[in-house]
Specification:
about 525 residues, alpha/beta, TIM Barrel, Oligo-1,6-glucosidase, domain 2, Immunoglobulin-like, 3 domains, eight-stranded parallel beta sheet, binds alpha-D-glucopyranose, binds calcium ion
Length: about 525
């Protein structure tokens, strides 16, 4: 099932712009990340996912790559990135880079060549029609900007032309088949990028829009999956310890068919994940499960999650996340007490969990202007709040030069304060990750099953391996009595949970782990 280190991996996602500035220019950088590796290790995270740090015009925060093999100068040099790999490895931390295989920046040299009227090696690297006037079969496209007579397809924003991996059903002369030489060349070019960084010491990739390669791929994405299986064959042969994590959010495809080691469970309206943490767009108010007394039931999560888990558990891992750079921070709707329970759940579930930088201190979703194509996502991308110093320990640059504004409120959460407070969210997360590392039953592989999801009078009770866990996000005391509890002892708790005479008492907003 892939690299062994994933079994006990707890990831930390770093948005490099906003994590730590080391040279006072107001923007985070690789030396800054290196400086904070001890913090990451003490948080209990033993793996990193770094958002794209490659040369880019930053029309989409770096998801518009101009040179896949060059670190963006604002973050440092390729040597700095290699130093990050080395320093991380010295602390037992693996590092995933962000691979964007579906599109590049329109400033990428491949695209510039491809946009020329004269045919050349890169003419087929992107998806072009053979006419500038007739659009592109209902797909987003741009025409009229290039010397080449044709429209080119977009994969995301206007600056992100789609790379050409072919069409499942080529029915126009300009559509490549999936095994056409130009489609195969694109695949080899991406493999070459992967090999470049793997050879320099990276431990794998988080793959952006991993399902977006082949166009008009059928409902089950069979052709896109076949490309990833081919890439996985390369990885198994030459980089067996490297991991592939997909932004796909469909484990039946990503894990069972495409061969990814882990797949994110993303926040999509009304899916199981959404009902846990951020149900705020539901009509009639927020019923998210961890919001105290919202009336939300864990059953909404389970109905979506369980079939996915059962179907894919033999193949790979579902990754539960606290949040990511695309979604509102959970502190937008949940209090610190609620977040503790939510994180306790995320960090005791199977698969490979991810903590988004700043969520461990409950950083807020800020109301800020869009930056680098962030739009409403920008509020989750503000600088890490380390201390009460000027620039909050993020940067020594003057406030107006910072990549994005800091949380200006007096009670803005920060690392320094929370490290001193045993009751803080940060301290709780550090204890939870330690608990997970100490018990194989709480790690990626141990089976998960539901013991009780009838929450009228009892908490939600679930099993991981031989351990029994319970959570009660409501404000009412709940009890659970069962022969299963015989011989168990309380190994961890949040709130005043207690176990006596086979009865587990769970006061409002509590969590318990029984070993
Ligand atoms: C993914 C990234 C997002 C980016 C998009 C286009 O969804 O997470 O930030 O804008 O792909 O690359
Ligand atoms: Ca800097």
């Amino acid at each position: 099932m892939g690299p062994k280190w994933l079994k006990d991996a707890v990831f930390y996602e770093i948005y490099p712009q906003s994590f730590q500035d080391s040279n006072g220019d107001g923007i985070g950088d690789l030396q800054g990340i290196i400086r904070r590796l001890d913090y990451v290790a003490e948080l209990g995270c033993n793996a990193l996912w770094v958002n794209p740090c490659f040369d880019s015009p930053f029309m989409d925060a770096g998801y518009d790559v101009r040179d896949y093999k060059l670190v963006a100068p604002r973050y440092g040099t390729n040597d700095d990135l290699v130093r990050l790999f080395d320093e991380a490895h010295a602390r037992g931390i693996h590092v995933l880079l962000d691979l964007v295989p579906g599109h590049t920046s329109d400033q990428h040299p491949w695209f510039k060549e491809s946009a020329k009227a004269d045919p050349n090696e890169y003419s087929g690297r992107y998806i072009w029609t053979d006419d500038a006037f007739w659009g592109m079969e209902g797909r987003p496209y741009i025409a009229g900007m290039t010397e080449r007579a044709g429209a080119y397809m977009l994969n995301f924003f206007a600056s992100q032309p789609a790379l050409n991996y072919g069409w499942l059903d080529p029915h126009k002369p300009w559509m490549s088949a999936i095994d056409a030489p130009e489609a195969l060349a694109t695949r080899e070019a991406i493999k070459d990028v992967m090999r470049f960084w793997l050879d320099l010491g990276c431990d794998g990739f988080r793959v952006d829009m991993a399902d977006s390669l082949v166009k008009n791929d059928d409902g089950c994405k069979s052709a896109t999956c076949a490309i990833w299986r081919d890439i996985r064959t390369m990885m198994d042969a030459d980089y067996p310890d490297a991991a592939l994590v997909s932004e796909w959010s469909n484990p039946a495809q990503a894990l069972c068919q495409a061969g990814f080691h882990a797949d994110f469970y993303l926040d999509h309206h009304f899916n199981g994940y959404n009902t846990l943490l951020r149900d705020y767009e539901t009509e009639g108010g927020d019923h998210s499960y961890f919001l105290k007394d919202s009336g939300g039931s864990i059953r909404r999560f389970l109905a979506d999650y369980l079939p996915k888990y059962e179907q894919s558990r033999e193949y790979g891992y579902i990754s539960l996340i606290t949040c990511n750079h695309d979604t509102p921070r959970p502190a937008r709707t949940l209090s610190a007490a609620e977040l503790k329970l939510a994180y306790a759940f995320i960090l005791t579930m199977p698969g490979v969990p991810f903590i988004y930088y700043g969520d461990e201190i409950g950083m807020r979703y800020l109301d800020v202007r869009t930056k680098e194509g962030g739009y409403q996502r920008t509020g989750s991308r503000t600088p890490m709040q380390w201390s009460r110093d000027e620039g909050m320990g993020f940067s020594t640059a003057p406030a107006q030069q910072l990549y994005l504004p800091l949380d200006a409120s007096d009670d803005a959460p920060c690392v320094e304060d929370q490290l001193r407070d045993a009751d803080s969210l940060l301290s709780e997360i550090r204890r939870l990750t330690a608990l997970r590392h100490a018990h194989e039953d709480l790690q990626a592989d141990a089976p998960f099953s539901v013991i009780n999801d009838d929450e009228d009078a009892a908490p939600f009770v679930y099993r991981r391996g031989k351990m029994i866990l319970a959570v009660n996000p409501s404000s009412r005391e709940k009890r659970f009595e069962d022969g299963l509890l015989a011989g168990k002892r309380l190994a961890y708790r949040i709130g005043e949970a207690s176990l006596a005479d086979g009865c587990l008492k769970m006061p409002g907003q509590s969590f318990a782990v029984l070993a």
